[in-house]
TrEMBL record:
Record keywords, A-Z: Dioxygenase, Iron, Metal-binding, Oxidoreductase
Known cofactor(s): L-ascorbate
Protein name as annotated: Prolyl 4-hydroxylase alpha subunit domain-containing protein
Prolyl 4-hydroxylase alpha subunit domain mapped to chain residues: 73-270
A Pfam cross-reference name: 2OG-FeII_Oxy_3
Lineage: Eukaryota, Fungi, Dikarya, Ascomycota, Pezizomycotina
Signal peptide positions on this chain: none
Cited Gene3D superfamilies: q2cbj1_9rhob like domain
Length: 279
């Protein structure tokens, strides 16, 4: 016996309601959740670069001093973030590995010394490097789902520089490079400061120990704050708000080295909501 049109329509409506109540399973196939939005699924960048903390790591005690420069975004200056022995160890590890630094544009890696003129070296994760990673993680309060990226050192000779840029490129409320450390390993140079043109320079003269205040040997003609390269010290700043939007104030540059050599260490932190290494 054939179905009347009214009966067919009734069955169709019931079927649609059942599909909706079941969670519309085909919707996830037609409009899949972006990889960076799914718990425990890392984007390509993070798969290559994130390091998992060593639970059995035993690091020597190390003291440093912090100075709050700005709250929004959070910017903190750290005296003695590395010991002299740690800095020398990282430099010695880096020396045979330095290669020209590259820039990325729309997913394509290239050399462009007008934008970035330096050399870079990725570090092996020996116990010294692991303890530096752990110190950076601890500094941020052991935040859930925050992981340190593999460490890179950077060497700048005369005229070496990195034009103004963000450390974050794309981000969401569930993933992104949330913070950065610029650590100075060696600073046998003039020039080469780290400039944040959109951050207000503090007025108190005590800051002139760490930032350029217009003295005759300093960086002149740059807006905002320029941190002097001082060996073993570091600058920490946040790149992203809690909603995943980036701070425009985190726009920064490595100013040209006038003479000598500057060697720095980049420490970046990546947030991936819901990610657990065990899973």
């Amino acid at each position: 016996m054939g179905l009347s049109f009214g009966s067919f329509l009734q069955f169709a409506v019931i079927g649609v309601l059942g599909y909706i109540l079941a969670g519309a399973p085909l919707r996830s196939l037609l409009s899949p959740t972006p990889t960076s939005e799914r718990p425990n699924v890392l984007p390509f960048h993070a798969k290559k670069s994130l390091v998992i903390p060593d639970k059995d790591l035993n690091c020597p005690k190390h003291d440093y001093t912090v100075h709050l420069l700005a709250r929004e975004p959070l910017v903190i200056y750290i005296e003695n973030f590395l010991s002299g022995d740690e800095a020398r160890h990282v430099v010695e590890m880096s020396e045979p590995r330095f290669k020209p630094s590259t820039v990325w544009t729309k997913g394509i890696e290239r050399l462009d010394d007008k934008v970035r003129k330096s050399e870079k070296a990725q570090l092996d994760r020996d116990d010294v490097v692991k303890c530096i990673e752990e110190r950076a993680r601890t500094f941020q309060g052991w935040q859930a789902n925050v992981f340190i990226e593999k460490l890179w050192s950077q060497r700048y000779g005369p005229s070496g520089h990195y034009r103004h840029h963000y450390d974050w490129s794309t981000s969401t409320s569930t993933s992104g490079r949330i913070s950065s450390f610029m650590v100075y390993l060696e600073a046998n140079c003039t020039g080469g400061g780290t400039n944040f043109p959109r951050i207000k320079k503090p007025n108190h003269e005590t800051w002139c120990r760490f930032i350029e205040c217009g003295n005759e040997d300093g960086e002149e003609g740059w807006d905002g704050v320029t941190f002097k390269p001082i060996a073993h010290n570091a600058v920490f700043w946040e790149n992203l708000r809690s909603d995943g939007s980036g701070y425009t104030e985190s726009w920064h540059a490595g100013l040209p080295v006038k003479s000598g050599t500057k060697i720095g260490l980049n420490i970046w932190s990546w947030y991936q909501k819901g990610y657990t290494p065990e899973a």
